[in-house]
Amino acid sequence: MAVGGGSLSLLPGSLLLLLLLGPGCARGGGGRYQAGEPVTLYVNKVGPYHNPQETYHYYRLPVCRPHTVRHKSLSLGEVLDGDRMAESLYQLSFRRNQSKKVLCDIKLDPQQ
Q1: Hey, which end of the chain has fewer CB within 10 Å, N or C?
Q2: What's the whole-model pTM score?
Q3: CA of 62: how far to CAs of 46, 58, 75, 109, in Å?
């Protein structure tokens, strides 16, 4: 009985530790941004709202794209959800206002 009671008493402490460490592990470091620090913006799959099985990678669409598409490492849940995240061309800094900027100019033909 004491062994079972002892293992149960560790459970609340373990949960508290996970809750405290969870947000810090999100960025692989301190979990906090400093003012002016770059923030990576990812693009994901795109598809119609009423048919979630029909999805396309964002960069398969006629949009501005980097020369080399760098994909984000995904968690198991993201893979199972069908996510396909890649870094975008947007350059953002934490707590810095951003004015309008042109990423690129694309000429679309009628077939696109």
Answers
A1: N
A2: 0.62
A3: 12, 9, 28, 10
Q: What total number of domains does the chain contain?
A: 2
Which one, of 49, 43, 27, 37, lies nearest residue 83 by Cα?
43
Count the Cβ atoms, other than its own, within 10 Å of residue 88. Answer: 19
Residues 89, 38, single domain; the answer is yes
Q: What is the pLDDT of residues 45-86, one digit of tens each?
A: 999 989 988 999 999 999 999 999 999 999 999 998 889 999
Q: Is residue 45 one of the residues assigned to a domain?
A: yes
Give the HSE-up count for residue 58: Cα atoms under 13 Å, Cβ half-sphere: 17
**Placement of tokens 């062994």 in the chain:** 3
Same domain for 63 and 13 = no
DSSP helix/strand/coil, 9: helix
CA dihedral of 13, 18, 23, 25, whole degrees rounded to 10: 130
112 lies in a domain?
no
